[in-house]
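ok trying again, last paste got cut off:
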Amino acid sequence: MPQINSGDTAWVLASAALVLFMTPGLALFYGGMVRAKSVLAIMIQVFMCIGVVTLVWVTIGFSLAFGKDAYGGIIGNFGLVGLGNMNGAVPGFSSLHIPLSAYASFQMMFAIITAALIAGGTADRLKFTGFAIFVVLWVIFVYCPLAHWAFSPFGWLAHRGMLDFAGGTVVEINSGFSTLAVVLVIGKRKGWPREPMLPHSVPLTVVGAGILWFGWFGFNAGSALGANSVASEAFLTTQIAAAMGLLGWIIIERIFGGHYTTLGATSGAVAGMVAITPCAGFVTTFPAIVIGTLAGAICALAVKIKFKFGFDDSLDVLGIHGVGGVIGMFLLGLFATNAINKSSSNGLFYGGGLHLMSIQVLGIIASAAWAFGVSYLLAFGVHKTIGLRVSPASEDEGLDTSQHSERAYSSDNRT
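nice, full thing came through this time. structure:
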């Protein structure tokens, strides 16, 4: 067991708290974008993930994701089940100077927010019980293997040299393509896209976006796993990419729609942070400007994909998180430099050739395929047994009253 560094431990624990704070921020972000009759339903879906994922993570999830390798880089063993045997070092991280419990807590918050993101694509029609059961299965069979592949030194993608600083594959591509799978299983909202389904409270969404922005510093800078220069660089590049994503999105809005919108500004900031997530500790400031700007602009265009192909991703989880994650992972193959982080390979623009780019593309394809394929099978199984979608009558009434017997606004008759 390496000597514990109190400063590094304090930073990782503070970062874990910041990442957890992102989940109620996501509840507000999503809640403002749905119709008033289902705002509490999506909030409780997001909050439920805190409880369910914590239980799964503590009992078996952390061991599957970060235990010693069991099957050729695919999944961890059962040596850390129930968070037992926690007195040693983090498996594979021999030089890490934080307790294993601190690392387990930090990574637990990642699993929570990733599961919660899926609720956004399925807004207004998701059955609460079915979603809770899906989340249990999804964490075990989708999230944990991907976390092992990319984050654990034993994982087959990490072993091949794929770079993913804070979750471009595990969190972003995973949530985007998992959401697409669930959306295809449960189908469209009633009336979509003929009827307008406008956000009921954009100010609520702005508050949520601000909390997400704040928490993202823990998400990315905390992934340095120490209070050091890499954390400082990740903090700075996160801010730059978020700001550039905001500008890139609203510029595209102005060019193609004639207006700058508040919802576009918040979405653009999130898109920028999504794209910088895999890159934050591996790139310098100028690449962060490019990554954030491209993410904001491309994601602003990508959210229109659902209208062309006819799938109802209600709050654009695929268009922002899935596409943004792909952008970040791909551009990392161009802009990565070991001048920032000695554990990094150099990308194409820094003399590394095509080697890193080829591995990054492999990671994109493998994570998207696994997330979509396994999520589809799990969602299909739950939908055909317990049910993942509410009845048409419950959807018309609104999920707040039909599923949870409560209203967000007791004196408000808006739908």
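cool. The chain has one domain: 6-401. The two ends are 57 Å apart (CA to CA).
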